[in-house]
Write a structure and sequence with these properties.
With about 700 residues, this protein is of the alpha/beta class. It folds into four domains: about 100 residues, OB fold (Dihydrolipoamide Acetyltransferase, E2P) (Beta Barrel); about 190 residues, Rossmann fold (3-Layer(aba) Sandwich), CATH 3.40.50.300; about 160 residues, Rossmann fold; about 50 residues, no CATH class. The protein is built from 25 helices and 22 strands. The chain has a seven-stranded mixed beta sheet. It has a seven-stranded parallel beta sheet with strand order 12-13-11-14-15-10-16, sandwiched between helices. The longest helix has about 35 residues. The relative contact order is 0.09. It binds adenosine-5'-diphosphate and magnesium ion. The site of adenosine-5'-diphosphate has 17 residues, from helix 12. The site of magnesium ion has 4 residues, from helix 12.
């Protein structure tokens, strides 16, 4: 077969032509033969049985019925008209109904000729009807390709309105398979085909479109999903290998004095096993001479900060500098204060750089960074400014990465001749396997254990009309000496409205919690940083008992005495955000509470989110639900990653296949990094085509 056969523009396929080609392109993105071949059916219908009209059930199933149209009429309805055909067989009578495309349908329908009609049955009164059925004359139906199961292709309203029905698409695919003589190049090596008992590409393509039976369909699906995920992983892994070969990092050869001293004398608690394991993983990376690019995942409160600190000590022990970046000024300041306290007995210099650092201080700081007097710099985006130069930055740690863009991270690379090692810490739990496919070119470490003695936060859902009861509960807790967060949603698009909600809320809280008995702090996005800090300070010191805030406090804030988190309009928050917010409490020894407030009107998704929150505290479980609710599209990085472009595999449902594919891609590249071996020639060919086509997968770098 001509190797370029599949690149042929779809207009050349018999039965398509330029007009249909335009529609196919606009509606389904189909431009070439290959695209059509990879338009996989959404589902299949068993068309081996034919129903009699008196056997029909209002089950909503798709069925086929043989009969004749005896009468056609237009019926006026509230809006527009509908075309109704009376359809009969020897057992009874039913209706076929069209709401659109009347002219075209009316002209093509034949009265009193046997048809096979197919579609979803519904019932109105005592009459069954099929809206927009597929129609095929019985004699044509009998001549058609005999398939046990019928593919249902993705479609759009426009496609069916233009007469490109499922049957038409199916015919196109048949035609294409006919023209290609059913021979498709096999991109997988024999060794993998054998080991996994995969069916050939040709067999898979035939059976994904026109399955001979259920078993072959399942095998075709498995094979094609595997292939798709395999090539995604091939790209990610080869990219990572390239980076490790090409990009040298600064080697950390010494097991250092600072690290050991801190570990032996100043560590305020025992590390959890997970923390120890992760530090070991990072040490291994830093000890090799390849540049580290590692993602550290750990649920809120799992203790990522101490891991970051110990890694920075390693850098210092080897004569280098380190920096830690956080997305907000509040968080950066908190990190700075926390680290300073941990390092109080050690002879190290640490400084803070944020947008509000004074100019005089800044100049001093720049000098100290350049002459190497400063060991650790903590800061916000301000660290990325070109003016900020280091003597020898070897480790850059980014906390809560989802607020940092790719471009910003790449700026870190140019702070040094040799790029620093990069550790990205995130508390947004990403299901592990998803992380693997998203960040397959990063290494991933996971802290999957909370420090001992944490009491799980009790989470409840309350409706707005119970607010007084909730306030009563707050008063009890405050009486016990606890502090409370009350959080309002912040949605960028309508900042003014959010602000109003917040202020209204604040006023009503101020009425119910009057001074001087109660003191209230408020923080929102429109305040100056200095004012925010001042309010935060008061809350941290315990001078105020209530913190009214927008989601500014979502990230990282640590006030162990705060034990109640009220989330207003909780239905407006996403799951991961709710989980982050809840992570602000439960940090001290006391039992903590999270109260989700909503009105009575809730969408199904919102209900699921609230139920999930009240059911579990496990960030990974929550992330799985989130992923199922939203699909991978909204997760960070997926837009760039092109995982949405997957044609048949589903990174959530096909997790197991993903892992198998990853394993095999890894083995293959380990044995033959450049795909030079004869047996891997087909892989190389397919891989090269994917890479040069650049249609897919521009992963985070
Ligand atoms: P996160 O992973 O959310 O950034 P932090 O690093 O802020 O978590 O840690 C949360 C709290 O747990 C801090 O008060 C920290 O001191 C404490 N902590 C961290 N590790 C341990 C541990 N191994 N044992 C006890 N407490 C710990
Ligand atoms: Mg943190």
């Amino acid at each position: 077969m001509n190797p370029n056969f599949l690149q042929t523009p779809i207009a050349y396929l018999k039965g398509v032509g330029p007009n249909r080609a335009d529609i196919l392109k606009a509606e389904l993105g189909i431009e070439t033969y290959r695209d059509l071949l990879h338009l996989f059916p959404n589902r299949y219908l068993d068309r081996t049985s034919y129903y009699k009209i008196n056997q029909l059930q209002p089950s909503g199933a798709d069925v086929q019925v043989v009969g004749k149209i005896i009468h056609l009429k237009m019926v006026e309805q509230k809006r527009g008209k509908r075309l109704v055909a009376t359809f009969v067989d020897e057992t009874g009578q039913m209706e076929l109904v069209w709401f659109r495309g009347h002219k075209w349908i009316k002209e093509s329908l034949k009265i009193n000729e046997p048809y096979v009609v197919f579609g979803r049955v519904s019932q109105y009164g005592s009459t069954f009807s099929i809206p927009h059925p597929e129609m095929e004359l019985l004699h044509q139906h009998q001549q058609g390709l005999k398939v046990a199961m019928q593919p249902i292709y993705p479609s759009t309203e426009k496609l069916s309105a233009k007469g490109i029905t499922n049957r038409v698409v199916s015919k196109m695919v048949q035609q294409l398979i006919l023209e290609s003589k059913g021979l498709f190049a096999e991109p997988l090596p024999v060794s993998i085909l054998d080991e996994l008992r995969l069916i050939s590409k040709t067999e898979a393509i035939l059976n994904i479109h026109f399955p001979k039976n259920q078993e072959l369909l399942a095998r075709a699906q498995f094979r094609l999903k595997f292939e798709e995920l395999f090539f995604v992983q091939m790209q990610l892994i080869s990219k990572k290998m390239l980076r490790k070969q090409k990009i040298k990092g600064l080697p950390f050869e010494n097991v250092g004095e600072n690290f050991t001293t801190f570990f032996e004398n100043h560590l305020p608690f025992n590390l959890t096993e997970a923390q120890k394991r992760v530090i070991k993983e990072i040490r291994n990376d830093l000890g090799s001479n390849a540049q580290m690019n590692r993602l550290l995942q750990g649920d809120v409160g799992s203790g990522k900060t101490i891991v970051a600190l110990m890694c920075m000590l390693l850098a210092i022990d080897n004569g280098f500098q380190a920096c830690l970046m956080a997305p907000t000024e509040i968080l950066a300041t908190q990190h700075y204060n926390g680290l300073k306290e941990l390092l109080v007995n050690m002879d190290l210099k640490i400084a803070l750089l944020t947008g509000s650092t004074k100019k005089s201080e800044r100049t001093l700081l720049h000098n100290q960074l350049e002459n190497g007097n400063l060991n650790i710099l903590v800061g916000t985006h301000a660290v990325l400014e070109d003016k900020v130069q280091f003597k020898n930055l070897a480790l850059a740690i980014v906390d809560e990465q989802h607020r940092f863009g790719v471009a910003q991270r790449s700026k870190l690379w140019h702070k040094n001749d040799t790029p620093p090692h990069i550790l990205v810490m995130t508390a947004t739990p990403i299901p592990r396997t998803l992380a693997m496919s998203l960040y397959g070119d990063l290494d991933v470490s996971v802290i999957d254990e909370l420090p001992p003695g944490r009491k799980p936060v009790t989470t409840v859902h309350r409706f707005d009309n119970n607010r007084l009861k909730v306030f009563g509960f707050l008063k009890d807790e405050i009486k016990k000496g606890r502090q409370v967060y009350i959080v309002y949603p912040l949605i960028q698009e309508s900042e003014a409205m959010d602000y109003k909600d917040l202020m209204d809320g604040y006023e009503s809280i101020a009425r119910d919690f009057p001074q001087p008995e109660y003191q209230i702090s408020i923080i929102h996005g429109q305040m100056k940083p200095a004012d925010k800090d001042y309010e935060m300070e008061r809350f941290v010191k315990g001078e105020t008992q209530i913190m009214v805030a927008t989601t500014v406090i979502e990230v990282g804030v640590n006030v162990p005495n705060a034990s109640v988190m009220i989330i207003e309009s909780a239905e407006r928050f996403g799951l991961s955000q709710l989980h982050q917010l809840r992570g602000r409490v439960g940090r001290g020894a006391e039992q903590s509470f999270c109260i989700l407030m909503t009105g009575h009107k809730l969408s199904e998704d919102a209900k699921t989110r609230l139920q999930t929150m009240t059911r579990t505290n496990d960030g990974f479980e929550i992330a799985e639900v989130d992923l199922k609710l939203r699909g991978p599209g909204d997760l960070m990085g997926t837009q760039q990653s092109g995982l949405l472009a997957l044609k048949i595999a589903d990174i959530v449902k096909d997790n197991q296949i993903l892992q198998t594919a990853r394993y095999h891609a890894m083995q293959l590249l380990k044995n033959d990094p450049r795909l030079e071996k004869e047996e891997n020639a087909p892989v190389l060919r397919a891989f090269t085509r994917i890479m040069t086509n650049k249609t897919i997968w521009n992963y985070i770098s």
